[in-house]
Amino acid sequence: MFKKLMMAVMCGGVAMMVGSGCNKADKAAAKEPAKSEAGKSAGVAQAPAVPAVDPATVLVAVGDEKLTVGEADKQVMAMLGPQAAQMQPGQMEAMMGRFRQQAAERFVIRSLLNQEADKRKIKGTDKDLDEAIAMIKTRLPKDMTLEDVLKRENMTLDSLRSNLVGEIRIKILVESEVPTNSVVTDADVAKFYDEQKERFVQPETVSARHILLKTEATDAAPVKAEKKAKIDGLRKQLVEGADFEKLAKENSDCPSKERGGDLGSFPRGQMVKAFEDAAFSQATNAIGPVIETQFGFHIIQVTAHETGKTTPLAEVKDKLMEHLKQQQQMKLFEAFTAKLKKDAKITYSDLAKPAPEMPMPMMQGE
């Protein structure tokens, strides 16, 4: 909660880039691998295991300021939160190298900004602190007060204000170098929309449920005929008004049986061709004919069918305008921090040297 309170002060514009948060790529990487209906794992590429490192090892130094491996690992665990417990065995160790690099880069940027704020003698005023506290209060859940949070975190209002000073100094510094009033014209937005039009295409989709009686290539003809007769009987029951969900739970061989056969919504290209052709051609809510795929015999019921469409520019104009402004601000911020890096003494350990393809992550103000 304390980090979220601090981020409330840093939210908005480029100030979000220097907070102590976890970027989207980190979160996605920490998730459990996705599974398709066919049970195929999308998986996460496994990096080599990271050997044990002395926590006192200096990961990176900016002048006299140092970040140790132990401190970086604590930051990583705090950012991942409950996701850490959900990671598969060995996944944390395999990814810790990348997480440490990102923690090191955040430390470098934050240290450089603090040092620059010191050089410029930037100080937050009481008014700045009052505004920060007011902003925090607006971001608390309706059933929670600031006093509740401070008590839970074993903090006082004075200690919170003291911690906020550093955040405010960085915010003032960044906003002096990266104006928040970037100019983006309607023509800029239209150009971006035209160049990225595929992003705004919503494909045709269907929502469907099914019952599968699985067959094997080794099934003898009588066995296969028996399964075909059974699914024909199930279809007859459905046509006569039987409950689809109940029959699916009792008879289907697909894992979706636990959801009454529900496959959710899917576009073309995700299912095998015979299944897709049937699903996209059936009338909504009709009980389709029995079809056969390499998995077995299916009964499909389409519960919704959405035609594909392109979202018009008018509907996304405001969001695109904001996106392009943030892009401009990011470029200015990166140019500013690159200059600070050039003029600073930064010592990376081998564990912290940034990979060439890894940009400085943009922080999220959660």
Question: Which key features would you list for this structure?
Answer:
366 residues; alpha+beta; Triger factor/SurA peptide-binding fold; Chitinase A, domain 3; 2 domains; four-stranded antiparallel beta sheet; three-stranded antiparallel beta sheet; 13 helices; 9 strands; 49% helix
Describe the overall structure.
Strand 1 (58-62) and strand 2 form a beta hairpin. The model is unreliable at 1-49 and 357-366 (pLDDT under 50). Helix content is 49%, strand content 13%. The strands form 3 sheets. It has a 4-stranded antiparallel sheet with strand order 5-4-7-6, with helices on both faces. The protein is built from 13 helices and 9 strands. By secondary structure, the chain is α+β, with helices and mostly antiparallel strands. The protein is elongated, with a radius of gyration of 28 Å. It has 2 domains: 2-183 and 324-348, Orthogonal Bundle (Triger factor/SurA peptide-binding fold), CATH 1.10.4030.10; 204-307, Chitinase A, domain 3. It has helices at 2-10, 24-30, 69-80, 83-86, 91-119, 126-138, 146-152, 157-177, 186-195, 221-239, 244-251, 273-281, 313-342; strands at 58-62, 65-68, 201-202, 205-214, 262-267, 291-293, 296-306, 309-310, 346-348.
